[in-house]
Input
Amino acid sequence: LEMIDTVHLLINRVCGHNCSLCCNKHYNIKKIPCITNEILSQVHTLCLTGGDPFFINFLLDELVMQIRKEFPNIKDIYAYTSGFYLRCYLSYTQKSASRDNLLINGITISPKNATDWEAVQDMFIHYPLFFSSLPSNRLLVYKEQLDLYHSYIDDRILPSLNMKVLGRTWDKEFKTPDNEGFFRLPILLD
Output
């Protein structure tokens, strides 16, 4: 087994978008290898992706707690989202004061449309302590959405949210670096 440091783990297929260049459309999900205990026992970083991990709501908390319990070698867990389902998750679970039971190290938000940007703006206003309690957050901004970014986001609040803004371009295919792997759960949590 090739030594990998980081695993990108596809946990569900539902995201609420139908982006033309979505990397999820460019591969057969059944051909993505399933994660194993052996692999999880050697990595230090886990990136939860989908779809949108926050679509599964309370199951995400349980999944992360189980991973933390069974694999203490995993030091960092991050979740990728477009923002919409994260806002639903935060309002549903009332995690306004801190990250509470989520036990993750950061969120990467990649808004895809005005609805997502509105959700991000709302979260930054109503749940700042959630983000500031996470050590590392990223906001991905596609050049096609710079106007939306400037319409919805006040740059001055980003440092207090531990939020780093990164420019992005659409990639037709998701390629992991040499020391990373892309896997899926054996049963996706749709």
User: Anything to note?
Assistant: Strands lie at 6-10, 45-49, 76-81, 106-109, 137-142, 163-168, 180-184. The longest helix spans residues 58-70.
